[in-house]
Amino acid sequence: MKVTVLGNNSALPAFGRYPTSQIVQVHEQLFLVDCGEGAQMRMQQFGIRSDRINHVFISHLHGDHYFGLVGFISSLSLKGRTRDLFLYCDASLKAIIDLQLPWDLGFKINYHFLKEGDAELLLKTDTLEVKSFPVYHSVPTHGFLFTEKKRKRRLLPDKLRQYEIPKYYYKKLSEGFDYTKQDGSVIKNEWVSEAGSPDKKYAFAADTRFAPEMVEHIFQADLLYHETTYLHDLIDKAAQRMHSTTLQAAEIARAAQVKKLLIGHFSSKYKNLEPFIAEVQTIFMSVELATEGSTFEC
Amino acid sequence: MKVTVLGNNSALPAFGRYPTSQIVQVHEQLFLVDCGEGAQMRMQQFGIRSDRINHVFISHLHGDHYFGLVGFISSLSLKGRTRDLFLYCDASLKAIIDLQLPWDLGFKINYHFLKEGDAELLLKTDTLEVKSFPVYHSVPTHGFLFTEKKRKRRLLPDKLRQYEIPKYYYKKLSEGFDYTKQDGSVIKNEWVSEAGSPDKKYAFAADTRFAPEMVEHIFQADLLYHETTYLHDLIDKAAQRMHSTTLQAAEIARAAQVKKLLIGHFSSKYKNLEPFIAEVQTIFMSVELATEGSTFEC
Fold it and tell me: Could you tell me which CATH number the domain at B2-151+197-297 has?
């Protein structure tokens, strides 16, 4: 699972930083999380093929999280897309899109409307799950949890040879099946393979006030993106605007026992972002800036 | 008068080129013409202060000419603007803005709705005029003509000394007034000054099919921006989509006797734009590519 940052700034673009948007890649699938203005240009700049995106998740309807969506959808249409697009968002977004793109796009948009306060399973396949969970901002807002499901069992070459298992059956073994020989004897899966990597989890939480309520949803995630609009001296402004500070994001990361914290949604007042890292690290060491164009693996 | 190109591409952004947007500066005033996605980021990148813009002209309601407008307006509001904004556009744009920005912005948007086929005087001050004129695309579309009005008369220092004219009166002289001495004798303005530069005209024409109808409106403009979505081999596609080719833009420039032609709105199929210049120059020599970030004076 990989996360590529397209935009990391808050309401106003500044210092070359664009508003919020990310690409989450799970196996070969690309997911778009939020779509601030310019997201489609960033995709081009970073070599991301927008036609590979089938599912779009919009956290909330503040412009810096969705003003790029109508352009993104329009471009998909102009490029001849026919496959359905799945859009998970507040119900109000449909009218905004319909008003600006009233014609036949050549493909269907399947809406899934997120309800305030809900935690839901949005998408489930053999290899991944996406869930929403509530975060707390001045309009209904959701976080998203991407889970790359338990990888295949790792086969042990020596044992495969020892038990003379035919190659065509390796895929079944990696999926956990036993092998039955022609003489009826059973080769147990655990004799020839070992457990694969555990599930991988990426949690996206923005925009939100300091919200310990989210910890249960993101517990032990491998990577947590949490907004840090302000350094901690502006804790009062953060509270007033329902945003978070560095130390608040760090507290959430520590309480949720995540492996790594990614921070972004920086206020346009900050040119230099290094103090964000320094402040977070007084509480939580494993932190990185969500620099645009960077990709973070988990 | 100066024109700075923020975006020069057609419907799809490509090769780092953004959709249509330009800044026209007349004396100290900045005007925004079209506002494709990312226009506000380009302004930041090119050091243009968006708060100095009071008048916005939108040629037509295709997304590549207005999808950046709601972000631009939202950012003005977040930056604390209180001065009115004047918006010249198709009437349908108001509902699109109201739906996405339903709250009090802190300033008023004064709409002037452009009617299909109309040529109108939109704005007139002592120093400039802006007129609309019809161009011909698949939706109602207008071009815009900016006129920097006759500059002040140029004073002749030797003559000012010779006729002993006091300095406090120089401004009046530059505005064309005669000077009356204390003894009642009159110093004629033309004895101490000469004509300033003539009016300067910039015409913006996009998107449009080949439209000789526009020539009367842009006649002898100093600078004409005319769309060239395609090279001339795609003249059939241009006709079908109501766009223009290189040679068609060149024909208009020649017929209108403009001093210089600026071309843009390039299809995303073209990476190399040099052939656009070469083709235009078979008909009209004084042509430049509307390169993003470049400023053209007239």
Answer: 3.60.15.10
